[in-house]
Amino acid sequence: MTSTKPAFRHPKLAQNSLGLTRKDYEGAVSTLCAGCGHDSTTNAIIQACFELNIEPHRVAKMSGIGCSSKTPAYFLDRSHGFNAVHGRMPSIATGANMANRDLLYIGISGDGDTASIGMGQFAHALRRNLNLNYICMNNGCYGLTKGQDSATADMGSTGKRGIPNPYASIDLCELAIELGASYVARGFSGDKKQLVPLIKGAFAHSGLAFIDVISPCVTFNNTSTSTKSYEYVREHIEATNTFDFIPLQREILTDYAEGTTQEVIMHDGSIIHLHKVDSKEDVTNRLNSVNKLEEEKAKGRLLTGLLYVNQQIRETHDILNTSLRPLNSLTENDLCPGNTELQKINDSLR
Amino acid sequence: MTSTKPAFRHPKLAQNSLGLTRKDYEGAVSTLCAGCGHDSTTNAIIQACFELNIEPHRVAKMSGIGCSSKTPAYFLDRSHGFNAVHGRMPSIATGANMANRDLLYIGISGDGDTASIGMGQFAHALRRNLNLNYICMNNGCYGLTKGQDSATADMGSTGKRGIPNPYASIDLCELAIELGASYVARGFSGDKKQLVPLIKGAFAHSGLAFIDVISPCVTFNNTSTSTKSYEYVREHIEATNTFDFIPLQREILTDYAEGTTQEVIMHDGSIIHLHKVDSKEDVTNRLNSVNKLEEEKAKGRLLTGLLYVNQQIRETHDILNTSLRPLNSLTENDLCPGNTELQKINDSLR
Amino acid sequence: MNRIESVNDFVIRFANVNGSGSASANNLFARAVFRAGVPVSPKNIFPSNIQGLPTWYEVRVSGDGFLGRRGGIDMTVAINGQTMQKDYHDLLPGGYYLYDSSKQLPEDFQRDDVIVIGIPLTRLCSEEFSNPKLRQLLKNIIYVGALAFLLDIELALFTDSVTRQFKKKPKLAEPNIRALEIGFNYASEHYQDTCGLTITKTDKLGDDILMDGNSAFALGAIYGGATVAGWYPITPSTSVIEAFDRYSKTFRIEKDTGRSKVAILQAEDELAAIGIAIGAAWNGSRSFTPTSGPGISLMNEFLGLAYFAEIPVVVVDIQRAGPSTGMPTRTQQADLLSCAYASHGDTKNVLLFPCDPRECFELGAAAFDLAERLQTPIIVMSDLDLGMNDHVCGPLSWDDSRKYDRGKVLSYEDLETRHEKWGRYLDVDGDGICFRTYPGTHPTKGAYFTRGTSHTEYSAYTEESSVYKAGMERLLVKWDTAKTLVPSPRTKIRDPKKNIALVFYGTTTHAAYEAMARLEKRGTVTNSMRIRAFPFQDEVINFIDQHQQVFVIEQNRDAQLRTLLIAENSISPTKLQSVLNFDGLPITADFITEKISALLEAGSTAGKKQP
Amino acid sequence: MNRIESVNDFVIRFANVNGSGSASANNLFARAVFRAGVPVSPKNIFPSNIQGLPTWYEVRVSGDGFLGRRGGIDMTVAINGQTMQKDYHDLLPGGYYLYDSSKQLPEDFQRDDVIVIGIPLTRLCSEEFSNPKLRQLLKNIIYVGALAFLLDIELALFTDSVTRQFKKKPKLAEPNIRALEIGFNYASEHYQDTCGLTITKTDKLGDDILMDGNSAFALGAIYGGATVAGWYPITPSTSVIEAFDRYSKTFRIEKDTGRSKVAILQAEDELAAIGIAIGAAWNGSRSFTPTSGPGISLMNEFLGLAYFAEIPVVVVDIQRAGPSTGMPTRTQQADLLSCAYASHGDTKNVLLFPCDPRECFELGAAAFDLAERLQTPIIVMSDLDLGMNDHVCGPLSWDDSRKYDRGKVLSYEDLETRHEKWGRYLDVDGDGICFRTYPGTHPTKGAYFTRGTSHTEYSAYTEESSVYKAGMERLLVKWDTAKTLVPSPRTKIRDPKKNIALVFYGTTTHAAYEAMARLEKRGTVTNSMRIRAFPFQDEVINFIDQHQQVFVIEQNRDAQLRTLLIAENSISPTKLQSVLNFDGLPITADFITEKISALLEAGSTAGKKQP
Ligand SMILES: Cc1ncc(C[n+]2csc(CCOP(=O)(O)OP(=O)(O)O)c2C)c(N)n1
Ligand SMILES: Cc1ncc(C[n+]2csc(CCOP(=O)(O)OP(=O)(O)O)c2C)c(N)n1
Ligand code: SF4
Ligand code: SF4
Ligand SMILES: [Mg+2]
Ligand SMILES: [Mg+2]
What CDD domains does this protein's entry cite (chains C, D) (predicted)? Predict the structure, then answer.
């Protein structure tokens, strides 16, 4: 039932520096429920790619299984996509990335996909600092299987089934920081203004950028008693900072009051400019980030924004010291040692 | 090749209040390498059970796969044991515990078994706060498969293979605290004095007690360049507190200077008495515990002792509100609704 | 034009959009037919998404009691704009096309062999109801009301159902009844004598019930004494645990304490789900895990452990269309090999094949006895069609004098009085089954170490070749014992000369029986065997041996039961011809009949029937 | 007493304690025999632990070139106190018992048909060497020196090896050579003319090599162009990746940058290991994962995805004894069913069966071509015996003009010039194989969505029954194509009347060939087919059809190849008789010979050979 939108292009649509319009970054028509948070997140991804002048075909989209994991079909239809099996997006993304370090990788997952069945792969992709833009569309439930609580559902939160969740929730951002992530952010599908730059920063980041996007499930978990409903999130959201993402090409123009900004220079030369609520906060300090998250949680607030960045950690290719050429581009000549070498080996085995 | 030690009992061996000697808590002769840290940890378990007057047959021992996971064969041979598959001890322990809440459960795992293949089950057993004494014998390597680095190997640490580990390590204690554990401790197989009370406290704890025991692998990871060698650990160990475990039956006799002790009353009425280096530290505060761990790490020190306790979190049975009778003791009469009820159901389906 | 005329024998297809609340309206319809005493068989054909995609509900009405899917559609209730066209064209000549005439039918709907029945559902609904959410739901009820008139079903059958459904909220019953009347009245005013399809009350159904297989299995687990369940959400198995949870809340709460006599754990994945079940089974609780294909794949390693360490765990596999994620909302019988030979090394598992909800209940309960008697995993092979659709079947019953067979377990007293040396894996009875003990039974006796590594008869670790080999051979003895304990096949002999036989299992059953009846009408009398378990009893092999020609009917591509039949026994593969449907929809009597006729034809033209 | 006398034909068993450094001494011995030009076949029989348990090293010397395991021990080098007794009793009558006579032999060692050779290893060692660590190691070298004398092997063959081994640390060579001499001298002083076993130089071996299968597979992966490997440690597959890493460091470092042309990732478990390999393969790298039984079980779900989404991944399964954790350090061929039908739903995977290291290399390299040509997982079925033991085999060779067959992949230019509409799952050639594209190839063409859900020919999601079915049927067409591409079987026809045939595969080969020779000596001439791949070519079926009686020889309990043969083809099961060894030790020629003789005997007594 996947169908692509009509290719007709309005002559006046805004173009980016590649001469592409926003439409060139879209995908098939979504089959998610009307109003699903995941569709808004999809839109933010499209926007970020468009604004970053990313060549769509240089992106590879990977996902697990779930409503969230279906979304790669709904953006960047000029990119290759791989909708794998439940909870295993990280390993597929790892292999793909190893094969060709020159593409951009975006991995989409859900809270069920990441925090339950995918917990191990999530943790270890973080530990290896895979160069991946990992977006978890977090709705606190298993949408596609009809709304069971997930491991990110808050204790006491009550979805459409009407039974308060009795288990403690896992905070994926805290966990990511604990596990040594190098870029951790939290967004809200209802706040595109904040989300788009977070995604852009993630693309510019070298290593694993994890974004936990609170992305409400309107069908099963948008009740007034759910802490992952639009209403609840809107009322309890707290931004740690606002955020400018300045790609390499552009110059910094704006000026901010002393002490209220922090500059993070990304691997590709882009700059992230943080305008902070509290000038003492340091987004590059792990403990500070976790403490801040916990503090807000204690106040019943959900902290969003760029929570933590560390540009010092090497990404997997750097750790492995692999060739700068994409491995998938190597041929017999690069790879096969030839018969003469083999005869030497034979000799050593006699 | 498992063989039990001769049953001969020296008449003068010390007996505990059940009239059992330490020998009654032993198991088959170990087939681990001479000097393996795991054997010392095994001894500490034996000691703790003996001193706690635990009836051996009321304990069930579960484990995964690895040298560490073999150890349940080497202690408590009057207990049932279950050496499951690699990384899956927590789920087996969960099922067993659900079937009979009246036994004591001890789960043995290794760092490979827990931090890699078992990461998901580890995280979720913690989240459910299963009533389990979870001991991870952590040697920073895969002993049984001949010494590959595990996910707890420190970056740069170099075992017998001679290649420095290029990946960041996972700190299982920090992770456990992050994931909502209710009792977290770190011990060292070479420090029985500290380890035995930690294990005792774990038995008294209602919920998941996680003990990360640094337990060197003499064969593959005891080099002078390894951070999990006896020598390195001995030199870098830092105890957050010393520790008295006072079982329900006994009275507290010792007196300590004001402010240097903290008392934790366990679920079964036992008391843990902490003698702290720094009187400001609060072992029941999550953030404090993580910060303290990180602080010591920054100093190049390895913090041991009881790191965190929270007696407020309900264990799995309490969350599920299951019967106080062991489920495995229920019979037809308790379980089968009978034909009359069935006929009512038939009626409702017409 | 010849319109289709039929009493109690037709197929109606409802074409809806999912998430629009049509399910309960369509169920209401099917249940009314059932209450009229007419055999009915509804099948839900739904997409793997939550809202907005096409979904169909196919209701077969069969006075003759044929409950399998039949080919062809006699009437369509076309509520989904996206599929109107297709639905229109799928109709049999002479069929009926009921649509929402609030909007006009497109111009190219020009079949002259279709009777079009327009009911302005949206308009009628808007005129009567103001609440927009209610409107969407009641639109569906209106067409049900119209059908009541068109098919001549007493309206009371519907209104009774509604009243019963909303017993606790009578306020909600009212608009539903009103909607039924609106539809009924509109149809009676505009479509007198339009419809040649009729439902006439009969008493064909006796004390039969209408139930889905997943609820029935769950009830079987309740009656069978299951106390621990580990699970992970996956379509189409999720409703097993939902039902188990529901029944537990009714039957398993301690009156005095309010506490529960079951532990149901939503695990983090399928590996943990079966791990929980295995841990519980090891510790003496009856336990199970429901899953579907991908879950079976993930449970492979643990199934091998349970086989080798001999732990009595029950798995119910609600099969869906594979491979991989495949078609999660379509049906298949394609996990047989995967389950029978799950896990690396030499493993074999016992499979049970229920064919209707009553058997889901019975074999479900029996699975726990079998598992504990045989100390091995038992996998109940249901499927999406059986599990998620309502089926007519005989009533459930339970013999109150029945005791659970907990198998060979030594109690404290047994251990005290036993003289021989006990070995966990010592076969004292020669049936390949050894005595086990539960943890905590006795202070000094009966403790043992369970392991997936090779072990001696006394459960010590061993690498001794001969000991390992003897253990593996004992498991084959147990396998033979299993043959004597698993449910026996059901045979129908109509041709004593034993010429042609049909062999099938599970949800293929109803369509197969119907095909037999049709073949018989065409002059081909056949015998049949419905297999209910793997390993196969001698009875199965003998039956096949005695027949000249055997058709094995399955719902998979690779003829998986046939593979098991020839691999495990010495049946000649040339004797077994396959009839395979694997398109994800329930197999139909049409398909089987035509396929077998064609194969027979081909065989007789080829002019040689081998002896 | 008749002592055993034999030139170049005997079995020596070394009984040691593991972790005591005996492995290199024993290897030294085997290699010296090899260097004397005498076919030799060493087998390591080691425990699943690290230190302190019994381990055996069985060296078969066979001038006739029989390289399988033979039953019976002619000489034991008994260094392990724990097993002395057993080792003594296992000796054949007339055999030799070499032990460390620093301690006296227990009194009950009273066989009068055994020649006892005492060498005071500990004493000699202590007298000569002071470093305690060195002492432990050199004790073993001393008995090797003694053997050199006893078996009449030039000492230079040993000292050369040692010199070569310690080329970079000549200081270490010295004490080793000294130890060899000590042993040699002691034996020559005390045991002149004691031993009737002799090694005589021959040139039987030509340009053969002595190599283990895991290194050979790794080298095949290097030559075959693998660039990504995901793995998780598991015995006995770990040495595949160790070798791959080693060879990568030699052959795959960019000279200018020092960077690596491979990415080897130790994954967190086997699910991730194969996920990494699949992700890389999807993205156009040749990739693989090595594993063993438990890993195969865990890879089940992903194997189904790779089958259905058609991703060319290579898996090498170094089989060990199952089920479950089983006997991790013992050998078996028991994962065939598990691999062939891995995963739920209708799945089938291509299997390759190498029989020696040369084939590990060749089929290893070929696996990558096949995977990419067929766009499906290829599983190379090795085993512990093949993978971890050294085997004599022909030299490796590589045709430098050989190009990798990357299969049907569209380049930028192809996409630019192609006129037809491209579909990822569109079979334009009728061979069931479709064209794929790598991500990033073209800005606007050739992108597609890979999924484990059902898909159209254009890789869009579909739930349309007919489309799904057509896709599944195309996969069967591809399966037929696979039969034309996989390595063909090897046949030996010695009886043109085609009476009796032996069918086998993998490491059963050498023992089977030897059994054939023995049977022939007894007057039973047989033909043979060594199967090298699944699915089976027509050639395989024809061969079986043409023979009266076929013995299928395997190293598993459940006759797994036989199951595949009869399930996938129409071979009558009664025709295939199984010869099964599954005790975890490599199958022997003795076992096969006796078993077949017995079966033939039984058949002829029963008086009926069926036609
Ligand atoms: C191995 C396996 N188990 C279970 C499923 C069923 N399943 C499909 S989606 C899903 C949960 C998805 O939840 P989440 O990742 O949170 O995504 P959402 O639908 O909420 O966006 C599950 C359990 C599956 N596809 N595969
Ligand atoms: C599924 C599976 N994969 C791999 C293995 C092989 N294996 C056995 S033990 C082990 C690692 C054990 O490491 P750890 O848990 O740290 O225990 P240690 O031996 O270091 O005590 C591995 C990978 C296995 N048994 N099962
Ligand atoms: S079920 Fe929830 S998560 Fe899924 S598409 Fe609908 S709203 Fe979104
Ligand atoms: S290998 Fe290491 S972990 Fe294993 S028994 Fe030996 S010392 Fe202990
Ligand atoms: Mg979700
Ligand atoms: Mg370890």
Answer: TPP_PYR_PFOR_IOR-alpha_like
Task: Return the closest-CA partner of residue D526 out of D493, D489, D504.
Answer: D493
Inter-chain touch A145–C47, beta carbons under 8 Å: no
Nearest ligand, CA of residue B118? Answer: 2
Domain boundary among C487, C511, C526: C487
User: pLDDT tens digit string along C27-75?
Assistant: 999 999 999 999 999 999 999 998 999 999 999 999 999 999 988 999 9
Pairing of strands D500-504, A132-138: unpaired
Any domain includes D551: yes
Residue nearest (by alpha carbon) to ligand 1 atom 11:
A142
C174 & C37 share domain: yes
In terms of Cβ atoms closer than 10 Å to its own Cβ (0-12, 13-18, 19+), residue D419 is exposed
pTM, rounded to two decimals: 0.97
Cβ(B148) – ligand 4 distance below 6 Å: no
First-last CA distance in chain C: 50
Does residue A38's CB lie within 6 angstroms of at least one atom of ligand 3?
A: yes
Residue D339 sits at the vertex; the CA angle it makes with D338 and D344, to the nearest 5 degrees, is 65
Q: Which amino acid is at B313?
A: I
Other Cβ atoms within 10 Å of D155 Cβ, number: 17
Q: D558 with D592, same domain?
A: yes
Range of the domain at C538: 490-609
Cβ contact (<8 Å) for B335 and C227? yes
Of D198, D232, D259, the domain-final residue: D198
Residues D159, D242 share a domain: no
Mean pLDDT of D283-308: 98
Model pLDDT for residues B119-134, shown as the tens digit of each residue: 999 999 999 999 999 9
Mean pLDDT of chain D: 96
Domains of chain B: 22-241+281-320 (3.40.50.970), 250-278 (no CATH)
Residue D202, classified by CB atoms within 10 Å of its CB into exposed (0-12), middle (13-18) or buried (19+), is middle
* B264 vs A209, higher pLDDT: A209
D520-538 exposure pattern, b = at least 16 Cβ within 10 A, e = fewer: eeeebebbbbbbbbbbbbe
Question: Which other chains touch chain B, taking contact as 3+ CB pairs less than 8 Å apart?
Answer: A, C, D
Q: Is residue D346 part of a domain?
A: yes
Q: What is the DSSP string of C81-129?
A: GGGHHHHHHHEEEEEEEEEETTSPPPTT---TTEEEEEE-HHHHHHHH-
- Confirm whether the ipTM is greater than 0.90: yes
D533 lies in the same domain as D564: yes
Q: Which residues of chain D have a CB within 8 Å of the CB of C534?
A: none
Alpha helical stretches, state H, B184-313: 192-204, 230-236, 286-298
Query: pLDDT category, A214, cuts 50, 70, 90?
Result: very high
D189 and D317 in a single domain? The answer is no
Residues C116 and C194 in one domain: yes
Residue C320 lies in a domain: yes
Domain count within chain C: 4
Given a cut of 70, the residues of chain C with pLDDT beneath it are 606-611
Interfacial C residues in 290-309 facing D (CB < 8 Å):
293-294, 296-298, 300-301, 304-305, 307-309
Q: Residue A214: nearest ligand to its CA?
A: 5
Cβ–ligand 4 distance for B122 under 6 Å, the answer no
Of the candidates C511, C569, C514, the one whose C-alpha atom is nearest the C-alpha of residue C543 is: C569
Domain assignment of residue D360, yes or no: yes
Residue D277 forms contact with A (CB below 8 Å): yes
Q: What is the pLDDT of residues B184-241, one digit of tens each?
A: 999 999 999 999 999 999 999 999 999 999 999 999 999 999 999 999 999 999 887 7
Residues of A in contact with C50 (CB under 8 A): 32-33, 67, 143-144, 146, 219
Say yes or no: D454 and D509 in one domain: no
